[in-house]
Design brief:
The complex is a heterodimer.
Chain A (H helix, E strand, L loop, with lengths): L6 E4 L3 H11 L3 E4 L5 H6 L7 E4 L9 E4 L2 E4 L5 H5 L11 H6 L6 H4 L4 H7 L5 H8 L3 E5 L5 E5 L4 E3 L2 E2 L6 E7 L6 E6 L9 E9 L4 E10 L6 E2 L1 H9 L1 E2 L2 H14 L10 H21 L1
Chain B lengths: L3 E8 L2 E8 L4 H8 L18 E4 L2 E4 L12 E3 L12 H8 L9 H14 L5 H8 L10 H18 L18
Parallel strand pairs in B: 1-5
Antiparallel strand pairs in B: 1-2, 3-4, 3-5
Helix pairs in contact in B: 2-5, 4-5
The chains are: A alpha+beta, B alpha+beta.
Chain lengths: 288, 178
């Protein structure tokens, strides 16, 4: 279908965008790459009266590193991350590059943005899952130039809702710590579809191949991406990186989660998928 | 709400000034305002890929972009592929390999392949399959589309030879044509 009519505003700088959003109120929506918003508008699931286009904002795209960690500008496209050279995205964050292959299809990745994906808050989205897994910090600017940092763990409320205020704009995404033994994998009926279940694992792996701990996060099993403490406890107990430990970790997750049933699969199916995908992600993470 | 915006679009190297409602997607402007009807429109939610065009050289869905957002960017459509001597090389390969039947999806596949090959001139068959999975074709079963894209890559590489850094008949090319 065609989207409902709206008024278009092109922001020139972040504060200008925030002012516009404050002024226009609840009927305004930010548009960046538009790869989630425009389909929703075409379906008329979303009918914003105003769109504030932030794609022209300067300085909000690109990848850099400093003592805080890895910074990814919110307007950076998935494709830019996927094709980032090692000098920008080293082995400590290679998982981000690898995970991009799971984001929609090539023509979606060329326009879709990292910040847009986080703000959209889809429970199966790769960026949301990675942010939760790796303690990403989302820096936002609001009215009066007020800047605050939202921990990824506090960002997603589920069902496409986030703790971002309607007049806040994401200005930076920080991945504070290296994740050299980290992997994301998922399953969807057709390549490029939204994942039925997505799993991401970050292992704390000693040089001798012993697991000393780790993180496990799942998408598609709850209204928001979640970490699974029961599975992480298994990794925390440690042991040699291998089938036994990974299976125990995956089984702990399978028992702990209570995924929804819908057109993409029943609750039981998703539980089994989660188990399978966690083992796969553990193997990939350990092999890095 | 019926505000019209005056925008300038650069399509296939040509600048166009037009008045458009904000809600008009790029694919509708291309087809209805610029009469470039080569770009097709299918699902209007980014799944089928019939409307795939190039934005600054990269494949993108013209149904998932408002025309006003395309200002300042280089747009290329399927109309740019043919030259004065007829079909372009990619189009010829699609024809030779029977990579189309009804033809509805073809403009999208051509632009997808054009952007993909520009970025990855020496793709493996698996990489071509991965790229081709972006778009839907309900006639061919994809096999011939993958063949055509691979053949175009081969031909382009052969014609540029050593200039591209790798001899055209390098036995190290492990691409399987199974």
């Amino acid at each position: 279908m065609k989207p409902a009519a709206f008024t278009y505003h092109r922001a020139r700088d972040v504060d200008g965008a925030v002012d516009l959003l404050s002024e226009l109120g609840d009927d305004a929506k930010i548009i960046a790459g538009g790869q989630s918003l425009v389909p929703m508008m075409n379906f008329r699931l979303a009918r914003p009266a105003h769109l504030v286009d932030v794609t022209a904002l300067p300085g909000l795209s690109g990848i850099s590193t400093d003592e805080e960690g890895l910074h990814i500008g919110p307007l950076t496209t998935h494709r830019a991350v996927e094709t980032a050279p090692d000098s920008l995205l080293g082995p400590d964050h290679a998982v981000l590059r690898e995970a991009m292959a799971w984001v929609g299809h090539l023509p979606i990745r060329t326009l879709g943005t990292v910040g847009g994906s986080l703000a959209h808050g889809d429970a199966t989205a790769e960026w949301c899952l990675l942010a939760v897994l790796l303690d990403a910090r989302v820096v936002v600017r609001g009215p009066g130039g007020a800047q605050r940092t939202i921990e990824a763990a506090d960002l997603f409320l589920g069902f496409y809702m986030t703790t971002l205020a309607p007049d806040e704009v994401i200005v930076d995404v920080v991945f504070p710590r290296p994740a050299p033994h980290c992997a994301l994998t998922e399953f969807a009926e057709r390549a490029g579809d939204f994942a039925a279940v997505a799993a991401a694992v970050d292992l704390d792996l000693a040089a001798d191949g012993t697991v000393r701990g780790g993180r496990v996060a799942l998408g598609g099993v709850a209204p928001a991406p979640v970490r699974v403490p029961e599975a992480e406890a298994v990794l925390q107990n440690g042991g040699p990186a291998g089938p036994e430990l990974f299976a125990a970790c995956a089984e702990a997750a399978e028992a702990a989660i209570d995924p929804p049933s819908d057109a993409d699969g029943s609750s039981d199916y998703r539980r089994v998928l989660a188990r399978t995908l966690i083992v796969r992600a553990c193997e990939e993470a350990a092999a890095r | 709400m019926t505000d019209r915006l005056l925008i300038t679009l650069t399509v296939n190297g040509e600048e166009h000034e037009l008045l458009t409602p904000a809600r008009r997607t790029l694919v509708d402007v291309l087809r209805h305002d610029l009469h470039l009807t080569g770009t097709h429109v299918g699902c209007e939610h980014g799944v089928c890929g019939a409307c795939t065009i190039l934005v600054d050289g990269a494949p993108a869905r013209a149904c998932l972009m408002f025309a006003v957002q395309a200002e300042g960017r280089q747009i290329r459509t399927v109309e740019s592929l043919a030259g004065p001597d007829g079909l372009g090389d990619l189009q010829r390969k699609f024809s030779e390999h029977h990579a189309l039947q009804c033809g509805f999806c073809t403009p999208g596949f051509l632009m997808l392949a054009e952007g993909f090959l520009a970025d990855n001139p020496e793709p493996t068959r698996e990489e071509i399959r991965e790229a081709a999975s972006s778009n839907l074709c309900r006639c061919t079963g994809y096999q011939t589309i993958v063949d055509a894209i691979g053949a175009c890559a081969d031909e382009r590489r052969a014609s540029c030879g050593a200039v591209c850094g790798r001899p055209a008949d390098d036995p190290a090319d492990e691409r399987s044509r199974a």
